[in-house]
């Protein structure tokens, strides 16, 4: 332990002459002497040769070897040692602690079984984004084509085995006494037009409706329908 050097000393009011204290000039180091009966005190010689009684700081003792006060009490070689007063520690009242509650007894639990392994799925092909479809602008409605007249051609005579039915024109109401003067008005009949082989008359009751044969055909009185010209043999 480093020696504790006394910087400030308290001097007693009474100064005694000591033959050990020799006079010295100013600037010389003052001499220190041990106390006769107390190791916590010592004498310091002044410039006049007087011995001034000095007291060491608290809990220190005068060392004859070093001539200063130190913490080492074994350096004291004479006189009574002053009792070292130990500081009293404050008594701290302990706060009574509450007893810890008993922890609930946890019953043994069933062992945790490992999770079954999940099936390993094979890698799948990446899903490509769907390409954007072009936006089709609205179009005008498609109107039905008008029905075109069917123009028959004269097939070879040896290939015709039966009548060929062609579309007829819309009927037109006409005056014909053959329809109004007949007795069987509950039935419908077809008659050749007067003076025109390309037309014929349909009698519905007493009403007469004139119709046009398809292009390239004449009314056939023998077959009672429009037929090709060479087979109809119309003489009107």
From TrEMBL:
Signal peptide start and end residues: 1-15
SMART domains, A to Z: ChtBD2 (SM00494)
Any single GO CC term annotated in Swiss-Prot or TrEMBL for this entry: extracellular region
Descriptive protein name: Chitin-binding type-2 domain-containing protein
Domain of life: Eukaryota
Lineage: Eukaryota, Metazoa, Ecdysozoa, Arthropoda, Hexapoda
Keywords recorded for this protein, A-Z: Chitin-binding, Disulfide bond, Glycoprotein, Repeat, Signal
Domain Chitin-binding type-2, first and last residues per copy: 18-78, 176-236
One MF term in the entry's GO annotations: chitin binding
Gene3D superfamilies in the record: Chitin binding domain (2.170.140.10)
Pfam families, A to Z: CBM_14 (PF01607)
Gene: 6040071
InterPro entries (UniProt xref): Chitin-bd_dom, Chitin-bd_dom_sf, Chitin_bind-dev_reg
């Amino acid at each position: 332990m480093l020696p504790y050097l006394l910087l400030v000393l308290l001097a007693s009011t009474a100064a005694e002459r000591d033959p050990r204290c020799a006079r010295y000039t100013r600037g010389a180091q003052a001499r220190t002497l041990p106390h006769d009966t107390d190791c916590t005190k010592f004498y310091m010689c002044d410039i006049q040769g007087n011995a001034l009684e000095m007291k060491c700081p608290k809990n220190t003792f005068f060392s004859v070897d070093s001539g200063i006060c130190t913490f080492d009490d074994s350096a004291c070689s004479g006189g009574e040692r002053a009792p070292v007063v130990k500081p009293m520690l404050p008594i701290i009242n302990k706060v009574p602690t509450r007893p810890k509650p008993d922890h609930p007894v946890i019953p043994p639990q069933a062992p945790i079984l490992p999770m079954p392994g999940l099936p390993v799925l094979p890698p799948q092909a990446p899903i490509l984004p769907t390409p954007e479809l072009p936006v089709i602008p609205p179009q005008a409605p498609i109107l039905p084509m008008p029905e075109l007249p069917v123009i028959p051609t004269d097939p070879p005579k040896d290939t015709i085995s039966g009548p060929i039915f062609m579309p007829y024109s819309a009927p037109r109401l006409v005056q014909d006494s053959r329809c109004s003067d007949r007795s069987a008005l509950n039935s419908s009949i077809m008659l050749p037009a007067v003076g025109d082989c390309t037309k014929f008359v349909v009698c519905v009751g007493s009403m007469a409706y004139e119709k046009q044969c398809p292009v390239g055909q004449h009314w056939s009185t023998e077959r009672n329908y429009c037929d090709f010209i060479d087979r109809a043999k119309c003489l009107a």
